[in-house]
């Protein structure tokens, strides 16, 4: 009897101790990820002063009230935006994800908060290229609220990246019907682009630009994207106008500087191009600017400079991988185009293919890798998947022409190559150069 009483008393004490510990620590969480000081030109703007003050206010509030989940979500949003502005993806996206996970772990009764936090998680997963996870998280958000436009945006993006293009179109249409704005128009534009409707893509992206507020990062992004659409069609004058418009509103917007750098390369003004790419890379650590510099140095025969920049580029992408940012497709293209190493490129491309075998960009990369390895039949199998949306992207059409030519249909192959050069006469790649040579050879035989 005494023994049973002892066990009962011990159990009661354990329960009481557990309740006390729960009450003591229920509002405690991991340390708040600190804000990092910006570097370079973006550290001297009034926008940065306002952003820093707002973030520091949220951090102070969370130190005083660790259980304030709404402030925690606002801080996560701020860090997601800071990742976009600064390019410090390896730090800010994991930091934002930590904050969002802490909110979702609490399972708050506030369904609006749960929905917004779940959408935020899916958005971060998309930014980290964790596309299958993002789709799953987006579906969880949809179960909470099927009337919010944002959830259809993340479901559209996830389906696009996974190669589920019909589903992506349905999600974009739903988003646009709920909230026709910059975010929905830009998604409609991309879907039109990959389905071969470049005029429609430009029209939709112009709507996105018109819907934006001048000076905001999102507006700068869609304006530069509109410029890149013009650039892809060979309309360099219109592209330049969009990049300059962006810089007039956001003087340190690195992607606009990068766009002008690409135009300078096309116009063979290599000194200006190098200056612009270097300036852009000095603003944010975006790998594409280093990629452009490596390509430029290689074209100029500056081998040592190209090798050093390539090493920095690969080191940065490895840091991204370590932070959970999946960049295997980017690495595949870099090793193929800049490293001239199809074997190494294949290793990365196959890893990405196993994650998302239906994505047209992944299949295009594999088609080009096998083409470079002179395995034209295998290249053709991946090309079939890469061209199934009827994309009119010039380099894809050129690749299709080259593979068709080498598989024996030289007339159709030459026709496709010529078509790609009409779609974008300013191509300057290994494929376009080879394609032009084959076309000239075919013409000389006539």
Automatic annotation (TrEMBL):
Coiled coil: none annotated. TPR repeats lie at residues 220-253, 254-287. It comes from the Bacteria. Keywords: Plasmid, TPR repeat. SMART domains: TPR. InterPro entries: TPR-like_helical_dom_sf, TPR_rpt. PANTHER family: CELL DIVISION CYCLE 16,23,27, CELL DIVISION CYCLE PROTEIN 27 HOMOLOG. This is Tetratricopeptide repeat protein.
């Amino acid at each position: 009897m005494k023994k049973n009483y002892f066990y009962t008393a011990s159990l009661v004490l354990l329960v009481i101790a557990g309740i006390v510990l729960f009450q003591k620590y229920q509002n405690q969480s991991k340390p708040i990820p600190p804000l990092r000081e910006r570097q370079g030109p973006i550290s001297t703007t009034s926008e940065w002063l306002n952003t820093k003050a707002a973030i520091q206010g949220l951090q102070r509030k969370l130190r005083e009230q660790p259980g304030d989940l709404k402030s925690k979500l606002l801080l996560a949003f701020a860090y997601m935006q800071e990742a976009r502005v600064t390019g410090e993806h390896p730090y800010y996206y994991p930091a934002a994800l930590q904050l969002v996970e802490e909110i979702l772990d609490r399972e708050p009764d506030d369904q609006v908060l749960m929905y917004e936090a779940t959408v935020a998680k899916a958005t971060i997963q998309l930014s980290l290229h964790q596309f299958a996870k993002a789709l799953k998280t987006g579906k969880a958000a949809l179960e909470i609220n099927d009337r919010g436009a944002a959830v259809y945006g993340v479901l559209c993006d996830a389906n696009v990246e996974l190669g589920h293009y019909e589903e992506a179109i349905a999600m974009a249409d739903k988003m646009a019907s709920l909230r026709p704005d910059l975010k929905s128009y830009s998604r409609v534009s991309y879907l039109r682009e990959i389905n071969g409707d470049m005029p429609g893509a430009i029209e939709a992206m112009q709507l996105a630009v018109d819907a934006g507020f001048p000076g905001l990062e999102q507006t700068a992004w869609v304006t530069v994207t509109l410029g890149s659409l013009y650039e892809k069609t060979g309309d360099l004058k219109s592209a330049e106008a969009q990049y300059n418009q962006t810089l007039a509103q956001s003087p340190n917007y690195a992607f606009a500087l990068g766009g002008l750098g690409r135009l300078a390369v096309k116009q063979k003004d290599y000194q200006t191009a190098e200056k612009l790419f270097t300036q852009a890379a000095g603003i944010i650590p975006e790998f594409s600017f280093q990629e452009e510099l490596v390509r430029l140095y290689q074209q100029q025969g500056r081998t040592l400079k190209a090798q050093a920049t390539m090493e920095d580029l690969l080191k940065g992408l490895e840091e991204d991988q370590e932070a959970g940012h999946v960049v295997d497709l980017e690495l595949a293209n870099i090793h193929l185009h800049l490293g001239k190493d199809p074997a190494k490129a294949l290793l990365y491309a196959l890893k990405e293919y196993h994650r998302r075998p239906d994505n047209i960009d992944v299949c295009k990369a594999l088609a080009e890798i096998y083409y470079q390895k002179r395995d034209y039949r295998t290249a053709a199998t991946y090309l079939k998947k890469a061209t199934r949306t009827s994309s009119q992207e010039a380099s894809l059409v050129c690749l299709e022409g080259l593979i068709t030519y080498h598989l024996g249909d030289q007339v159709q192959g030459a026709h496709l190559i010529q078509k790609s050069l009409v779609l974008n006469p300013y191509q300057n790649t290994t494929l376009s150069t080879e394609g032009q040579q084959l076309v000239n050879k075919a013409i000389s035989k006539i």
